[in-house]
Amino acid sequence: MNHKQIAKFITLIENEPERARQVLKDLPRKTCPVIGFTGSPGVGKSTLIDQVIARLRSMNKTVAVVAVDPSSPFSQGAFLGDRVRMKKHFLDEGVFIRSMASRGALGGLNESIYDVVELLEAAGFDYVLVETVGVGQAEVEVRYVADVVVLVLSPGFGDEMQLLKAGVMEIADIYVVNKSDLAGNDSLYDQLIGFLTFAGRDVSSVVKTSALNGSGVEELVDKMTTLWKTLVETGRLKQLRRERSRHHAETLARRTLQKYLSLVDSEDPYKAVESALRSMCERLKNGQGGGT
Description:
The protein is of the alpha/beta class. The chain contains 11 helices and 7 strands. The radius of gyration is 20 Å and the shape is globular.
């Protein structure tokens, strides 16, 4: 499957999600490491991913990147286009990069992300990297998509306060103190180590990097790869994939129910849900599918 075919399939999945099943059903089922990168706006996620791509390519690994950006209020397209920070890989046949608009979805991702990741795995890439929109403390959707979650922190962006909160800090598998060439990185690093120690977490999961000069990136990639291999060997990966499938099913069910609710004219919310569910079940009984 070439890059042009993959791009067309992704566009179809985004614009006509009910046809996603048709796109995916005939593709082979494959598994590769799916690594999620999340963090506050401006911490350097895209530039760091660019360095991670370079490292993986030096290992002769193929890489697919999905960068979820805020939506344009007019076209609903990707607003920032974070992939411009990865421009040196555009002509590399071993790298596929795609921006996706969040389209108002909560959690820093796009509702089509599950099908898109499955497509990229089926296409045979060695690694799939998912970059979220710049997130706040409660946006943890990436946990359900990625096998390994990398939380990127940076001095001077208020991340010291994030260490005192639950939420996105709890879903990370690897913590990156990026922009380690800036003042304040030692303080953030020490506070992060203190937080993890207090929480009973493994402090070896912390990496210092500089996305500008690439320092620490080799260590980050080694930790990503080692952790994924451990997930496979312990059987934890199968559990994570089951959780992803269940969460994907919830997303599909919610989207389908919303579609039927839009057809119901009732001021009583309970009756509206009952009527929508009845219509949905009737359609399924007649073999017409649930509209997804």
